[in-house]
Amino acid sequence: MLPGRGPNGRSAAARLSRLLGTRTAWTAVGDGEFFCPGCGGDRNYQRLTGHRRFALLGVPVLPRGGTGPVVECAACRRHFGTDVLDHPTTTRFSAMLRDAVHTVALAVLAAGGTCSRASLETAAAGVRAAGFDDCTQQQLAALVEALEADTGRFTGEPCTAGLAIELHEALDPLAPHLAAPGRESILLQGARIALADGPYTPAERDALATVGAALTICADDVTRLLAAARTPS
């Protein structure tokens, strides 16, 4: 039998680990709320840094350097790398998704659909489904008018730099956290708003192309999805 194997070997190793080892003393340097991969939901966390020490008989005696930082879940007590904080909480993700759908709806309406009752109905229904329960057609129409007054832009014009920036600000942070079907769903919602009152106008296509780019959907896939949206299911 190889040394260290079997009941006697395991007992010797256990005795040695009690005599000698490394202990880590953790210090909290921050806290907050995050999405815990271990729990699968929003939890409180502490951000910890640690100092390792060589221990004899369980008593720390010699420093072994720093470790961390890590994120400790207050519920399951598991430790994770700090990159886990890059993932939005469920609450934050829902807010990002609502804002994204709302911004896309305004962009498409401003591109040519705000005068159409059908487009406004489709837009309002999509925004309500995303979480803005009290959204109305009148509110969307008023927001588009305010947007045009603020930018000097007129309905039916191509997507301006200012509107493109707003789309990217709403969609860029969200895109990495959405699977391809989720990103495509947002684009298709915009396409349905544009198609509610007839074929795409050049300005609507331009706005939807900007939406696709912000969602990191390649140009060929944007073209395919916009064509598919025109085909009745």
TrEMBL record:
* Pfam families, per the entry: TerB
Q: Co-chaperone DjlA N-terminal domain spans which residues?
A: 100-224
User: Superkingdom of the source?
Assistant: Bacteria
Q: Per its UniProt record, what InterPro entries does this chain match?
A: DjlA_N, TerB-like
UniProt name for this protein: TerB family tellurite resistance protein
